[in-house]
Amino acid sequence: MFRVLSFLLLLAVVLPAAPVFSQNPVSGAFREVVLHLDTASYSLSKNAVLFNGETQLAFPYQSETQVAEVNLYPSFSARNHTVTLARSADFEQMDSVVNINDQYYRVKVKFRNLTGSQFLNFTFAVKDSASAPRLEVVKLFPYTRTSVKLFQEDNELFVGEEKILELTTDNIRNVKRPLDWVKGEGIDYRLSEQNGILRLHVMPTQLGTRTLKVRLQSNKPSLDKNGKPTYDLPTLEKTFMVKGSRLRFLALDKKEFIYDETSRTKGIEVLVENNWNLTLQKTYRIEDQEAPGGVLIGELFTRNSVANNKVLCWLRVFNYHRISEGYLYLKDGDQARFITNFAILPKSAVKAVSIMHEGGDWTSNLTVNPGEVINLKIEGEGLSKARFRFDDLTDITTDSTLRTDEAVVYKLRVPVNISRRKIGIYNRAASTGHFLTVKEYQRPRNFDFVYINYGAKPQKVSGIVDGPILYDHVVKDIVFTFQPNVIENEKKLYGKQYLDIDVRVTNSRNELIDQRTIENIVICPGDNSPRAAFVNDRECTYGEISLNNFLGRKTYDLSEWNRIEITIRHDKDKYGSEGQSKKIDILLRRRVKFDTEVSFPAGLLVKHQNSDGYGNLGGISMAMIAQFSFYHPEKINRFRPYKIGAGFLALNAFNFSNSANVQRDLGAVIIGSLYPTTRETKLSFPLYLGGGYFISKKTDPWFYFLGPGIQVRF
């Protein structure tokens, strides 16, 4: 009995000072609980800790998703009982609770977030066949060792200037971060996290050599050498040399300001970062150099502090400045306190607009055509930050296009189906006062849409070869027809075609018979044109054009070798020198000419059919012949050197001698003649050959003759 009392008394004295590990913590349905982690095992009988008045199974972890095998050794007969593990958000049960030969139970789990898990435990339901389930809770105590180190070679700080140092840790989630600045001995500090990196912010407040001591704590504890839980991490120490303050960059919430009357007099509201050296209700001069006597760029008046550690200020600007020209200095009197930088630009103003068509030069004529691509240049002031837009135009400008404060160039496409007549140019929402005027294309197209019909069939004017057209028939009329659907398509626009037709009619001696000019012929593109809906058809010419409606001398009244010269051309007033012209030359060709001619054969050698010898030479005779002349097939209005005809021959008609030997008679003859081919000769001597019948002779009336004649041209 004495021994029992002594043992109880010893327990009462020893337990308050005993280590956290309990020697016999197992009770209830399980006599032992064992956790297998990797190659180590932790049991409730050997590795239990007393925390918050409860016995908990302690185990270390390195991974947030540690996998563990749990072995349960029951204090009851495993043969008649079943054990299940309750679901929990802190872990994932990887398999069922398995009875191993009625010796123990085994289950595998995978933890999800060991650092963030609170009140971690296993809840088992033990049930036999006769009674209700009994719940058994096994408390778990995960712990880990976390290291935090500071590697920083630079030990120079400046009073009032915050510096950010990077900390190295093996478990950033287990490092507890204070929400506010922690006061130190001459150096204040706080912790933050950015992109998974733990950062230490330091703010020196006193000059000299100062040692920074950062005391950190963890979210999950570790075990000290006595096996007790501890949340304290090793203290970080670093010695710094703190120097006097230097110029600090004061950032404004805007980088660009427009210099105008409002910004010069009333000022612009801006937000700047707060700084311990920035005094409220004070005006700071802004100059372009740190030394005294700099150019006054503006003034900054600090009004009051606002949220997010900002200060609301008035900024007044008095001069232009570009960021590339260097820093600006905020001065209290002549003493520089801060540096900053921002741009002060002139207000955007458009002075001139010019365009360049494809293949052309810059022009101030702001007329554009549907479907074309143009370059548009805007010149003025403060244009680098202007945002121009254009009604209904497609901006295809590339990054390499010119953009400066003085000029900006855009590459624009005018839609084919644009319906506007004026395209406004806007800077953001404000009109610049400049407009582009949309004008339908007025380009001359070749004459493949014009057809001419002078008797055979319609021919495309553009396909007619140059040179005279020899036509063998009567030209009843010359008709022009047009194909509007040929003029335009989706790929190429030409617009209305303004045409004139000049007609000149001459005879075989090139004497003018008639002359007309048909003007104001307007052929509009057809319905297939993408611009068909926008064509004003009141001036368009429809139907065909007949030349006989304009000519005084109709084409069907023209004689052989009359010439019809037709010139179809674009209106010079509309196109100028860019217009096209096509000349069509139609000649009324004949192959044979039938006429009556009086000639004077002289010295004919006449032979009667039944007479011997070669016959007698006659005097000057007269012949009236109806004859056929033959035109040369390859020459214009040129005869072949022979003619054939029939008529009457008065033999020796001009021989007035009274001699009985002079034979005068009238004969019906068939005659062929050969003429010289030289047209310039006024006097020529053709050769006649033929035969006939003397009308007055009763006997031997048939005769033949051969001889020259006389031809005189006037």
From TrEMBL:
Please list which residues make up the signal peptide.
1-22
- Alphabetical keyword list: Signal
Name of the protein described by the UniProt record? Uncharacterized protein
Q: What is the lineage of its organism?
A: Bacteria, Pseudomonadati, Bacteroidota, Cytophagia, Cytophagales
